[in-house]
Amino acid sequence: MTSSPKPSRKLLAIAGALSVVAGSFAAVPATFAANVSASVPGGNSQNSTEECRHIAVSATQYQGLPGQYQLAYSAATSSLYTSFSSGRPPILTGGVGTWNVASTPSLATVYQFPTTDFIARGATAPTGKQIESPYGIAYDEATGYVWVTQTRVNKVSVFDPATNKIIWSSAEGDVNHPREVRIDPSSGKVFVSGSGGISVFDTTLHALVKKIEFTDAKGESDIAMNMHVDSADGKLYVPSLSAGTVKVIDTKSYEVEKTIQLHKENAEAALNPSDVTIDKSLKEIYVSAQGDRKGSNSGITVYDLETGAYKKTIPFGSQALALASDEARDLLYVTDYGTGNVGVVDARTGTVVSQVSTGATSGANDVLVAADGSVYAVARSIEGASAIETDYTIDKTTGEYRTSSTEPKGKDNADSPITPGVMVKINTTVETTAKPAAQTSSEELVKTYADGAKLYAVKDWTTGETLKLRGEGFKTQDGSKGSVLAVKLNKGRISAKEEPKLNGAEGNSAGVWAYIQADENGNFTAELPYPTTENSNLKENLKSGDKVSVFLLSGSMVEGDTARGGEALSATVAEKKADTAETCAPAETTQVAAAPSGVTTTYPAGTKLSLPDGNEPTPAPSESAKPEPTTPAPSESAKPEPTTPAPSESAKPEPTTPAPSESAKPEPTTPAPSESAKPEPTTPAPSESAKPEPSTLAPSESANSNEVVHEYKDGAKVYFPKTWDGQKLTFRGEGFKTLDGKGSVIAVKLNKGAISAKEEPKLEGVEGNSAGIWAYIKADENGNFTATIDRPTVANSNLTEELKTGDSVAIYLLSGSLTENDNVRGGVAAEYTFSVENQAPAPKVSEPKTSEPANAPVTDPSAAPSAPAESKEQVKENAKDQSKAPVDSLNSETQKKDNAAPKTSGSSSQNVTSSSNGSTSSSSSSKSSLANTGASGVVIAAGIGVLALAVGATVLVARRRKA
User: Fold this and answer.
1) Quick check: helix, strand or coil at residue 151?
2) Cβ–Cβ < 8 Å for 44, 545
3) CA separation (Å) from 407 to 287, 380, 877?
4) Which of 37, 167, 482, 775 has the fewest CB atoms found within 10 Å of its own CB?
5) DSSP 3-state percent helix, strand, coil across the chain (nearest 5)
6) Region Disordered: start and end of each range (predicted)?
7) Is 944 within 8 Å of 674 (Cβ atoms)?
8) Are 111 and 103 in contact (CB under 8 A)?
9) 401: helix, strand or coil
10) Which of 88-92, 285-289, 564-568 has maximum average pLDDT?
11) Which DSSP symbol is given to 306?
12) Helix (H, G, I), strand (E, B) or coil at 501
């Protein structure tokens, strides 16, 4: 029974179970309870059952860059970043564009990337040059850096827009055909998808931390596609291309928590899942799929966020690719690579409400939602566009950038016009209105009594539903009270199994179906339960078309009441009609053509990205060194999306090198020194206001005549001897404190980690969070330390030949992610160039393990990256013409171990400069991860590949520096 909208109504006991109930409810006996229980309509959210949404979409078209792939957005700088790589290899036109989008989008800067050799198909030597061009792209809000994947050269790089410098690039073998890059600010990790799975990097140390292997149903290496990072809950969602699954990965442990098998509408057609996003308010996961690229299985499938259970399919386009969620408004945006269109989806209803034509006929690669709800999408080309002239193209022979409107393409190297891509800004508005009332059978006046009382009802009594009655003017004779009415069906021949009661007592007549109490105005609303064999004396249930006479009787149940009787209504039993619940008008998919902006895109002269001096990457900038804003910022849900469609299920590119299993952690490029060379801690770091900045070696009052000093912005100083004599180097530090005044934990790298220990150093018995570390240092409570490290040799490192005259070793000191609240520092602290002085025996070290030190992994020259949009066949065909990555000059295929090594002397460079790492993220997993020796202010850090204080190598002891 439901309540009446009028406040003063009163219903009495129905079917004999309860006494009179105040208010506007009829009392229902136990036998009727099941029949009158109200059911609440279901829905995804409260609003979805109370309101209708009206979604309007408009779009504006802007001329973009040639061959656009992915988008990234900076909240700090209000800038939109676009990666672009034109055509097929060799890539001669490409880079990254930065757009101001605070008002009308305008192209502010275009960054030019370094070039490398290109080896044509079937050739064994370079046939020209190509750009190390970017495809995937992400912006790191913590550092102001931009991360890119350089798919065709199997590399990931980080550049600083403020200084126009590439500060770091991944080592050979770290990634294979990298596709997309995602940054997780919570864990301080970067995830790169590609052939073989996911490569995980540290945002502070820029080091490979982990490889997560992906395989298909046959156990063969699979391709990890475009990702979604849920930083708040520490989860990474990644589709696996050939397996047809989505993996849910813990971003702290890197364990796969769940694998969701994806649904196919057409079981016989390919699925090719490409991108994924979530909506926490609707508790749903959305996965886009390209299907068979002819339309079958193309669209979005929806899954329960908690269980992974399949819920529904939203068909869209011929090759659905990139996917983005506007969670604040429960909207989805999906690109169709096959047509160049972008779909707008109401996630609450699972319907495509609009299809936006970008102006491209294909190649819609990416879509991104910004903080203000505006949406940006890019496609690789514009239909009918004229060639543009820029200096973003290189000479194929020399590799020099040149101004041109054409580039040589194809087997005959014919000049082809360089045409722009398109960028579309989509504006979506959502208005809501109340849902229309449920359509019900019309109520009509069915009886007027002699005293003027009126009864209204619906003449059809729907099977299984209550019969609604409404009365007006049912009063006692003196008009002071409301009447009490007895309801009988078929003159009482249909009666309740349990006789209704009045005020807890039986009434004065048998066969009563219910009692009704009118309010003081003589009005009432009542709902009579439908009679069945379960709640009445019926031997068989009523059938459609049966008649039920309803009698209302009054006069004998309350003193002075008005006498009424006779049949009030002859109701006809009717079958339940189609659902007439409250509903919104079905949404029709509107077709929206992006309108030309009328604004001419001006292409600025290219800005060349340079490598630091000596081709050594520099560390991250300080917070004050972040690039100035150029455009509005994205919301948390504004995620940069996929770049190009993935290969078909039957044609998946084979990885250049398979991703290692979880147990097969990436090995450092070079092995580690003996444990006798462990750095010795002594002191903590600066206050938050003293953020580390780049600095140079400079004289200090506390430095003696044989020392040079490197000073960080927070005031921390490290003192190095001017020469590195013999097998060991001792140096000292002052003021290395965390933000809360404890001693910093510092990682030591040689040549950026290219020279690494044979056995990876450990922090308190466990591996640290970065490969290529030579040693760890823990400063004491005053931020001071004295450390001694071994000179790298063939015996203690991954060197394949001893250091010789002219070789240089750069020492990097890195802090920020190894203990909580540490100051971020980085860059070259000192650099030594070696020269032979005399011969001396090499230091004794423990015998190496059975295997020789492993060389840095080398990419198989027979397999090479293909563009993200290529099929497996294209990938395999292209694999033949890709260049072999250069091997580190310190590695060789064979090596001889000598029992003696020449004693060398290294001179410290006096003009070394470094920049501090401005990342503010730190790893809490490293907290208290160094073993304390018990001496005041002295901590032992495991170095050169063995546990702290372990047997088998000399232990490096950090001695407290005397005042």
Assistant:
1) helix
2) no
3) 37, 16, 22
4) 37
5) 5, 40, 55
6) 399-420, 595-706, 839-933
7) yes
8) no
9) strand
10) 285-289
11) T
12) strand
**pLDDT at position 821:** 77
Model pTM score: 0.57
Q: Are 146 and 159 in contact (CB under 8 A)?
A: yes
Q: Check whether the bond before 66 is cis (ω within 30° of 0).
A: no
Q: Give the residue from 592, 811, 824, 581 showing the smallest Cα distance to 694.
A: 824
Q: 185 with 231: CB under 8 angstroms?
A: yes
3-state secondary structure at position 526: strand
Walk me through the domains of the chain, giving residue ranges and CATH numbers: 10-32+438-574 (no CATH), 54-408+425-432+601-625 (2.130.10.10), 675-844+891-940 (no CATH)
Query: Which of 66-75, 305-314, 628-637, 738-747 is least confident?
Result: 628-637
More confidently predicted of 15 and 144 = 144
Inter-residue contact 319 to 334 (CB < 8 Å)? no
Contact partners, residue 820, CB within 8 Å, separation at least 6: 738, 922, 924, 927
Indicate the residue type of 178.
P
Range 244-248 contact pairs with CB under 8 angstroms and sequence separation of 24 or more: 244/271, 244/273, 244/649, 245/273, 246/273, 246/276, 246/285, 246/287, 246/303, 246/308, 247/214, 248/308
Residue 462 in this model has a pLDDT that exceeds 60? yes
Convert 296-306 to b/e letters by CB count within 10 Å (16 or more is b).
bbbbbbbbebe
Rounded Cα distance between 522 and 99, Å, is: 72
Length of the chain in residues, anyone?
963
Can you give the pLDDT at residue 961?
33
Give me the residue label for tokens 């009328």.
598
CA distance 554 to 487: 9
Specify the pLDDT at position 794: 94
